[in-house]
Amino acid sequence: MKSRLLAVFIVISLGINIGFLLHWLRPRLFPARAAAMSSGWHSGPMKRHLNLDARQSRRMESERRQVLAQAGPLQEELRQKRRELFVLLKGQDVGAADLDPILNEIARLQAALEKMFILHSLKVRGLFSPAQRLKYEGFLEQGLCPGMMSDEACAPAKAGQGMKGAGCREAGETKK
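and the corresponding structure tokens:
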């Protein structure tokens, strides 16, 4: 009885370990497939929720890649400034005068990135039909990042209603 139980345990353990290894190795073994599974307008829940046609999703994916490429240098500069801040904070005596210049630069970079993504959102919104725009704005109203939302996300609010969305009504959440 013990040997059978041990054999079953070993088989289950082996299966779990192989599963973890495959999950970890798949992007390295099949990089093209991993890239296709990434987020973006060409795939994922937003394409389905907004009923995007192929032309719209291609155009929106192109716009997404373009804004990410433009944001890259600013994001890297922001990372560098944050590293500088952490190095500064390691020092013994840090005063407000020491913090102000680097914090102002971090705030400037964050504001520039925020503006870039807001302008991108306005540009992308112009590619939608009126019905798609209403759904998109409903998702943004809920605070969802379009590329990160799940299939289970609440339906967008209807114009003029005070509810966040049809799927949120059960929770009793209202818009403030």
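(Above: one complete record from the training split.) Helices lie at 2-29, 31-36, 45-50, 54-90, 96-125, 130-141.
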